[in-house]
Amino acid sequence: MRFRDIPPPAQHAFMRLNGWELLYLVAFLTALFFVLSDDALGTAQRTAGTVLLVACLAAYVRLGRRAVGVGYRSWEGRTYVVLLIVLFTPVAIMSPYTRFVLFALCSQCYMMIPKNQARIAVIIFNVAPGLKFLFVPPSRDELTAFLGVTLIVLAFALTFGPWIVDIIGQSRERASLIRELEARRAEVDRLSAERGALAERERLAGEIHDTLAQGFTSIIMLLQQPDSRRIELAVQTARENLAEARALITELGPAPLSSATLAEALARITAQFGEELSVSVAFEVRGESRATPTKVDVVLLRAAQEALANVRKHARAGAVTVTLEYTPETAVLTLRDDGVGLDPSTAEGYGLRGMRARVEQVGGALTLTSPPEGGTVLSAVVPTDRLEQGA
């Protein structure tokens, strides 16, 4: 299971007080039972012990619960611990049986105040009830019982208390880290969505430029000098533009590839280009023709359309040759014209940048050169072996 699949907890475990509060309630109710059932205590002492224990519970409800949630630096935690010492020590002096409540109180100290202060509070909790021996000398059994309980509680509290503190501290750090990770994850999701939307806009812009915009340009050029043949070609181009628009809307592949192979589509658009401009055109397939991944067909078809559009706009060419060559590892599209050639000082336009980006996205390379004999040669080399394996 990945981190992103784990739902955030409604409340972190170290912040849930149900188990601790049940322990405190049971401890105090048991202590109250001992106070009320101790025959050695008079009515006034039982009443005082009951009031003091109820006051301890009230202090927890008013201060203790908030101190656990706020943390170690709160004044509520320190005030609560001091009140516990003041309120519980007389009860422990009156009824020694109530001292087992210290197991719960010592844990509270470590949860509410800093570790060193908690150690001091634990020692005071356990030693303070022995003050009565300054006024009433204890018997041997009383002293043995007092020292035994004190040593056991101190050993337990001083050993496990710091461990509890460390666990709570680590839990708080991890809770903070989880919140930070959730915030980072939300930011990553937002950025990914924005990047995906930007990439989709760029893709659609490239599709529109390579299809609809070029088709409209062709229609305009055909209708500038209208005759029956040019009007017929303009109508045909308009229909093809409509097919391209529908393909874009339904997220299908390029319309020329919907019912033809790449070689057939290239032969058709090359022939149509020659008819539109009344120039000499030739299309040739070299190597063993084979089916290639759709992404390869789309890239090479768009490259051919953009290259022919550039010839129409800039080259003033009299002859154009388009070659599709298959090798065991690649598919190569080459377009050569005898026009005015490439001006090195001219920056790449949107169409050429889009064409280069398409080819590079599938691991290919695009080159544009002007040979010494004149004209321009465009070559797009796309690997097919890796794409076929990953298809």
List SSEs in N-to-C order. Answer: HHHHHHHHEHEEHEEH
Arithmetic mean pLDDT: 80
How much helicity do the residues have?
55-70%
- Basic shape: rod-shaped
Number of helices: 11
Radius of gyration, in angstroms, nearest whole number:
43 Å
Ends apart, CA distance between termini: 27 Å
**Strand order within the widest sheet?**
1-2-3-5-4
Task: Outline the secondary-structure elements.
Elements: H1 18-37, H2 43-70, H3 75-94, H4 102-112, H5 115-127, H6 140-224, H7 228-249, H8 262-277, E1 280-286, H9 294-315, E2 319-326, E3 330-337, H10 350-361, E4 365-369, E5 376-383, H11 385-390
Parallel strand pairs: 1-2
Antiparallel strand pairs: 2-3, 3-5, 4-5
Helix pairs in contact: 1-2, 2-3, 3-4, 4-5, 4-6, 5-6, 6-7, 6-9, 8-9, 9-10
Keywords:
65% helix, disordered N terminus, 11 helices, single chain
Summarize the model shown.
It is built from eleven helices and five strands. With 391 residues, it is of the alpha+beta class.
In words, what does this structure look like?
The protein is of the alpha+beta class. The chain contains 11 helices and 5 strands. Helix 9 links the parallel strand 1 and strand 2 (319-326). Helix 6 packs across helix 9. Mean pLDDT is 80; it is low at 1-10.
